[in-house]
Each structure stands twice: as C-alpha cells, then as structure tokens.
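[Discussion] Sanity-checking designs against the backbone

I'm trying to build intuition for which residues belong where. Below is a structure token string of 653 positions. I'd appreciate it if someone posts a full sequence so I can compare it with mine line by line.
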C-alpha cells in the first residue's frame, strides 16, 4: 500500500455488545482483567509461569534469549519431551481418562484413553526407531483424520524427530515438494481416507510422490479402507503390523527446548511454500496455555476442535494443546454433511460436547443449511464457542451464539497464524465484553499494535498494519532452510516489528477488528476498503449465505468492487435482488462501498482449508487467464462464475 492518509479506511461501525455470562468469573481459569496488567508488567515472567505448567527434564537457564533478533529463543538450556508432556505425565492421575472420542465417517467409533494412547505411541516410536528414525530425524505424514495421525506425530516427538504433516487433501506434487524440502526419510500415510462418501487414494498419491523423492526410504501405511493398494516390497510396511510387533517400552528423549518439533508448510505470496519452523518448549507453552485460558478448560469439558490436523489449528488445538492439558476431545474423520446435514450436531450431542471450535466458513455453511438441523439436537451442554481462520462477520457470529450456543455461550473469535503457533488475539470468555466481529484484545503476555506506513501507531479507529512488537514463546523460529526469507517476509518492512500481513483497527475501547489480509484490501477512489467489511454487509442481508468481494481494475475509480454472492437455500435471485443487495451495502457502510457488480453463484472458489480464493475471483473479474488453481477444492465453479461474470459484467449506476 502506498499514498497518503490512513493505511486502510475502516468504515463499518460496531453495534451490540455481550458481557460475560453472569457467575462465570469465580470458576474461570482467568476470571479477572487483572491478568492483562500482570502480564504486561512482566511478560517474560508471565510466560515462565505458563511454562512451569509443563514437565521439564531440566530447567531453563534463560527464559528469552533476544541477543540475535529476529532469531529469538525461549527457555534455552531447558530440556523436555513434547510426547511425555502430552501423555506420560497424565498417567498416574488420569490414565483412564478418554483422550479422544474418535468417530469415522462411515459411522465406526472408538474411544481411546491416555493410557492406551501412550502404549500405542511407545510401540510405534520403537517401530520407527527400527526404520532408522532417531533424534534430529525427519518424518513426513500424509493422512486423514484417523487416530494413527496423532500417534505418528507423538511417536516422532517421543524420539526427538521432527515431523511435517501434509494435509490429506493435497496432491502428489505438493506432497513430493514438501517431503523433499523437509528432507524426510520416512513417509507415513494410509491406504485411503474417507471424505464425503468417497475414498481418497492417499497411498496411490504417495506412490506417485515417492517415485520422485529418492530420499524417502520407507513408506508406512495405516490400514483404513482395507482395499487393495500397490505395494513396493522392502519400502512399504503396514503401520499396525510394525506397531503390534514393537516393544511397548520406549523412554521419551529429553529434548532441547529449541529443538524443532515440526515444520508446517504454508503458502506465501510467491509460489514456493514456506516451511514454518516450530520448536519444542516455547511452542508447547503457547499452545497449552492458550488452549486452557481461551476455552476456560475445566475437568468435565468435552472439547471439539472441528479442524483438520493437517493445518496448524489441528496441530495446536487437537493434538499438542489439548493433550498437554489432559483434555478429552472429539475427533471426527469426515465431512460435515455426511450422510446428512445433521452429522455435526449429532456428534456434538452424542459426546455431550461443551466447547466447539470451528471456522467462519463452516459456520456460514451451517447457517445456509438452515436452523432446523441444530434445532433437533440437544446442544445444551455447549458453553463456549470458538472461531478461527478468517474474520467472522457479525451475522454469522450472532447465528453461532443463538443457534449453537443457546443464546448464552460466549463466542471467542481467535486471531492467530501458522507462524504464531498459538492464539494471539482473542476474548477471554469470563472476562471480555464481546463485540460480534471483533477478536477483542491481545492475550495476556502478547503485545500487538496497529501502525501506518511510517511504522507509527495509527490513531484509534483508524485502520493499519497489525504488528507484534514483543517476541512470544510459540513464534516461528525461521523458515526452514531460508533465514533470509524469514527476515525479509516478517521483519523487514518495520524493523523490530513482526508484520502479520493483516489489516486491523483498534476501537476506542482497545478492541481489535481484523480487516483481512493486506492483499485483500481494495482501493476505490482513493479509499482503502477491506473486502471483509463489504462481505459482512452483504451477509447481513437475510437472502445471503456467503459473499466474496474483490477489487477489479477500473479506469475511473482505480478499483471497483466486484461481489460474488451465494444465496440461502430457497431464495430466488433476480435483478431486483441484486439492486437491493447493492443498496443494502450502501446503507450499511456508505455509498463508497456499494459493489459495482454482483454475480449470484451456487458456490465460491475455496482452498481445501475453506478459505475463499479471492485472487481467482479477481482474475475472473478482470477476464484474465486464471492463476494457479492447484490448491482449489472445487475447480469447476470458477469456470461457471467466469461465464456468469462475462454475461453480466457491469451493473453500476
Ligand atoms: O488473515 C488472518 C486469518 O488467517 C491468517 C492465518 O492463516 P493460517 O496461517 O492458515 O492460520 C489459520 C489458523 C490460525 C491470518 O493472517 N485469520 C485467522 N484467524 C482469524 C483471521 N482473520 C480474522 N480473524 C480471525 N479470528
């Protein structure tokens, strides 16, 4: 962004507020706002206190080593093992407690206790040892949501080997690139995974990837579909066979706090994915502490993070955070609509889920399906709702609270990134007064600001760049094998400040409003507008289920707002509705934000993690050849939208 004036114009005004549920504070993990002040007065002391909740084999010498910024190191000299923290230390007191209530898409179910999980991890770790995996080793994992996935991750951690999990929806090429970049010697996968009634051929994809990844010597395959797969003798081994044959006694290796626990690849603005490196002590401190405080975890909670372990949300809030806290979680293998739109709520009812953590895109989908599905299920145990992954529009926020949270459950809108490792900005459910659409304020111990082009704080109410100005324990340490790109991407624009790449504004109360990625910002007649604000205004209309907005080049205004809208089931779209929607946005935000065109479409192009690919919509709007579509989950929809956009390109007055 260049030019004078505010970095981003934030036009939408907030409305209603919700105080914390009465009577919650005295029993809450954090029950008073005093925690913020205490952490601010001594952030390092705050994090040391959180780290002390883990089990260390030897204590740290220095809590924060900031001698070579931006290469910060936490709890140096200390040693611990992540798997021992997630499993062994719970055995004396809560070994018989369920770690996961797992449910397969076809309907099979299994509950596994901490003791059982511990034994399976120990056996599998010994089996990996036989394949030459040891301290400092590198293992790639390409699986669906079956129990063998967390078992594989924890077995690596137990041995002190780093893992990289490649999301099971990725292609063979994506898998090959990541395995190669990571330097994996073993790949762990499964025969097929179940998704939306189909079988995804993970082993066949792995075979294709392995054909071009000579560094990978072994392929361990978990049985799931039981259907035949191609087999390479000497290279391929069955997961369950080598696990069963292995010894159950496997001591956990004490690891240096700064030893890499895992790398996770995330897309950057250029083609090559970035390997985000997380280490052991600081990461586990951040993930476990925030899991406990943000969700106000209690002993009798049943917690369900409905993400996929292939993304960072699953790493931190299905595996490492909840297990380090000894929580009982639900883990679901499949698609939310299989075999019917009741599935999600059926599962929540069956296991008496009390905390649900999911993404705005999922919430908007459930909203689109209609209220009747959650209505027929007993969701009365739900007491906390979480949202993550993109800004949540107030309409979806309210629906979530009303229809899933019984009109009382606080919604914690949690802002963070693969890079940050754990939640950075979020309400505390017993403390914060909630504003739908705002992620509230930085967590205790986290220091965030919003700055303009010059790196100075912008005035309250004005949009700018979100930066983090103090190191935090679960921060990424570097990009794997590319320190220069790490410095360049995150630390070069404003020296000394971590650039998150998101727009944000802080209101008069000090609450943060995320405005989407910086590259999702439009410039219309010299006004910088966030795509999310226009999208929120559209979704606020009762006819609209989901909306995506992009800026397309315009001779007169610089960029013109092009909107793509899916309607709620049963609503018929016509020209009159389009006019109504455009006027609705104008009334909600102001005439400047009125979309120049609206295309009504059955679906929006999304990545496999559910993020709308605005870049492709920009290509469509400007009638350009489509950019990279390899991460797209629903490729055919782009062609359909392109045809619609060409048929009806301009609607402006
Ligand atoms: O733009 C922000 C958005 O997701 C980005 C991080 O994506 P990823 O690394 O894939 O991690 C997603 C899960 C943590 C951020 O830069 N984002 C995430 N959570 C929120 C959000 N935007 C607004 N509000 C949120 N609660």
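Best answer:
Here's mine. Compare freely.
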């Amino acid at each position: 962004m260049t030019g004078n004036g505010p970095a981003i114009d934030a036009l939408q005004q907030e409305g209603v507020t919700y105080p914390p549920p009465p009577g919650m504070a005295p029993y809450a993990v954090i029950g008073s706002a005093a925690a913020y002040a205490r952490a601010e007065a001594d952030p390092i002391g705050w994090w040391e206190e959180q780290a002390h909740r883990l089990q260390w084999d030897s204590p740290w010498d220095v809590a924060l080593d900031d001698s070579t910024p931006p290469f910060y190191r936490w709890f140096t000299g200390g040693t611990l093992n992540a798997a021992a923290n997630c499993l062994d230390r719970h055995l004396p007191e809560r070994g018989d407690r369920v770690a996961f209530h797992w449910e397969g898409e076809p309907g099979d179910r299994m509950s596994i206790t901490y003791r059982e999980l511990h034994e399976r991890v120990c056996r599998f770790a010994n089996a990996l040892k036989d394949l030459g995996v040891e301290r400092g080793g590198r293992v790639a994992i390409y699986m669906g949501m079956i129990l063998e996935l967390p078992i594989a991750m924890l077995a690596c951690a137990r041995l002190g080997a780093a893992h990289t999990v490649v999301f099971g929806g990725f292609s063979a090429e994506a898998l090959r690139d990541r395995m190669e970049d990571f330097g994996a010697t073993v790949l762990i996968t499964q025969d097929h995974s179940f998704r939306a009634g189909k079988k995804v051929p993970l082993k066949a994809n792995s075979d294709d990837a392995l054909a071009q990844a000579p560094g990978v010597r072994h392929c361990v395959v978990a049985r799931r579909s039981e259907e035949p797969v191609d087999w390479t003798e000497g290279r391929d081994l069955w997961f369950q066979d080598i696990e069963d044959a292995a010894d159950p006694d496997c001591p956990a290796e004490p690891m240096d706090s700064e030893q890499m626990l895992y790398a996770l690849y995330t897309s950057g603005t250029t083609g090559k994915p970035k390997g985000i490196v997380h280490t052991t002590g600081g990461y586990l401190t951040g993930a476990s502490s925030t899991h406990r405080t943000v969700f106000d975890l209690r002993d009798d909670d049943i917690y369900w993070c409905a993400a996929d372990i292939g993304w960072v949300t699953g790493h931190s809030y299905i595996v490492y955070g909840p297990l380090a806290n000894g929580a009982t979680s639900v883990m679901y293998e499949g698609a939310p609509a299989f075999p019917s739109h009741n599935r999600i709520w059926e599962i929540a009812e069956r296991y008496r889920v009390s905390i649900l953590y999911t993404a705005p895109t999922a919430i908007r989908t459930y909203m689109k399906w209609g209220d009747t599905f959650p209505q027929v299920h007993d969701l009365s145990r739900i007491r906390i709702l979480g949202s993550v992954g993109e800004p949540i529009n107030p309409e979806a926020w309210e629906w979530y609270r009303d229809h899933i949270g019984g009109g009382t459950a606080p919604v914690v809108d949690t802002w963070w990134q693969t890079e940050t490792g754990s939640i950075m900005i979020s309400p505390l459910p017993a403390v914060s007064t909630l504003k739908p659409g705002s992620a509230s304020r930085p967590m205790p111990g986290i220091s965030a600001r919003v700055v303009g082009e010059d790196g100075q704080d912008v005035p309250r109410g004005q949009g700018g760049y979100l930066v983090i100005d103090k190191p935090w324990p679960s921060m990424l340490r570097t990009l794997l094998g590319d320190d220069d790109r790490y410095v360049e991407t995150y630390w070069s624009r404003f020296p000394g400040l971590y650039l998150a790449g998101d727009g944000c504004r802080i209101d008069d109360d000090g609450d943060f409003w995320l405005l989407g990625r910086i590259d999702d910002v439009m410039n219309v007649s010299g006004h910088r507008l966030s795509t999310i604000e226009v999208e929120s205004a559209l979704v606020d209309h009762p006819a609209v289920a989901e909306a995506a907005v992009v800026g397309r080049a315009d001779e007169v205004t610089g960029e013109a707002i092009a909107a793509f809208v899916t309607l709620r089931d049963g609503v018929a779209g016509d020209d009159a509705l389009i006019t109504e929607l455009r006027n609705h946005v104008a009334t909600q935000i102001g005439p400047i934000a009125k979309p120049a065109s609206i295309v009504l479409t059955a679906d929006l192009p999304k990545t496999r993690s559910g993020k709308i690919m605005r870049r492709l919509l920009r290509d469509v709007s400007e009638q350009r050849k489509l950019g990279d579509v390899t991460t797209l989950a629903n490729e055919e929809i782009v062609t359909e939208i392109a045809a619609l956009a060409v048929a009806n390109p301009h609607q402006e007055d």
